[in-house]
Write a structure and sequence with these properties.
Blueprint: E1 11-14, H1 20-31, E2 35-38, H2 43-54, E3 62-64, H3 72-86, E4 91-94, H4 110-138, E5 141-146, H5 160-180, E6 185-191, E7 195-196, H6 198-201, H7 208-221, E8 223-224, H8 225-238, E9 244-247, H9 251-260
Parallel strand pairs: 1-2, 1-4, 2-3, 4-5, 5-6, 6-9, 7-8
Length: 270
């Protein structure tokens, strides 16, 4: 049994944190002295991630628990195990999400619909219910749901399935902030912007020509997960307001990217 985490140290749970932005957020929080629970679908992925992180960070602050977010009992088990291990949970981040290759909506299979909707919407709902039930029992803490392309009503060919799930998450975030107001618990959204991860590159599988066409603009507007995560982590730890959207990009930052593009060549895909 590990000792209860110090009151000065936050205990943070991040679903889908064995890779991508979830993994980089884990590193950023560990660097800031937080206790972090890593979670992924398989015990093998969780174990490998813990071993990788254990080389450079305090092992006492790292815990792992496999969890398929589409299974409510596994999500509840994740909460219970973390609570038992660290003694508390201060921040819960629903980060787990998947995408399919960019295809016309009618070309995707019913199985692909089911997989994306269950993970991105139902998984977020399950994590939200479990986390808020636990946090409300304490009377304080924070829940954040990761948004993505489609959350602000954008449309794009080939992104109908993924974008519709993130539009749903955006509505969940807005409504939760109203429902939770005045309870001592806060909820919010995390909007990292365009981040080059496997989630993005996977959408171009079988459509490499389209990726090549998009590469130039993506190298201007996008970022690597390791660049975005520390900024998001700092904002999350400082935030005390309900209903806030934690963003990496700003209008000024985006404008600077376009102005500097002719002079600053980047390749985010290597």
């Amino acid at each position: 049994m590990h000792p209860i985490v110090s009151n000065k140290s936050r205990s943070i749970v991040i679903t889908g944190s064995t890779r991508g932005i979830g993994y980089q957020l884990t590193k950023a929080f560990l660097e800031r002295g937080c206790a972090v629970t890593i979670s992924g679908r398989t015990p093998e992925a969780v174990k490998a991630t813990i071993a990788r992180l254990g080389v450079g960070y305090d092992n006492e602050l790292i815990y792992g628990c496999a969890c398929d977010v589409t299974d409510y009992l596994q999500v509840q088990n994740l909460w219970d195990n973390v609570k038992s291990h660290f003694g508390k949970i201060d921040i819960w981040i629903n980060n787990a999400g998947i995408a399919m290759p960019m295809m016309e909506f009618w070309e995707l299979t019913p199985e692909q619909y089911e997989c994306v909707v269950q993970t991105n919407i139902l998984g977020t709902m399950y994590g939200t219910r479990v986390a808020l039930t636990g946090l409300l029992a304490r009377g304080y803490g924070a829940l954040y749901n990761l948004e993505g392309f489609g959350a602000r009503g954008q449309g794009m060919k080939g992104m109908t399935l993924y974008g519709s799930t993130k539009a749903a998450v955006h509505f969940i975030n807005r409504s939760l902030a109203l429902e939770i107001e005045g309870t001592g618990v806060i909820t919010g959204a995390i909007a990292p912007g365009m981040v080059i991860t496997e989630l993005v590159t996977r959408q171009f599988e079988g459509r490499e020509a389209e990726l090549e066409k998009s590469r130039r603009i993506l190298n201007i507007i996008a970022e690597r997960a390791e660049t975005v995560a520390p900024v998001l982590a700092d904002k999350i730890l400082k935030n005390q307001k309900n209903g806030v959207t934690i963003e990496y990009s700003s209008s000024a930052r985006m404008m600077l990217k376009f102005l500097s593009a002719p002079f600053k060549k980047r390749d985010l895909f290597t």
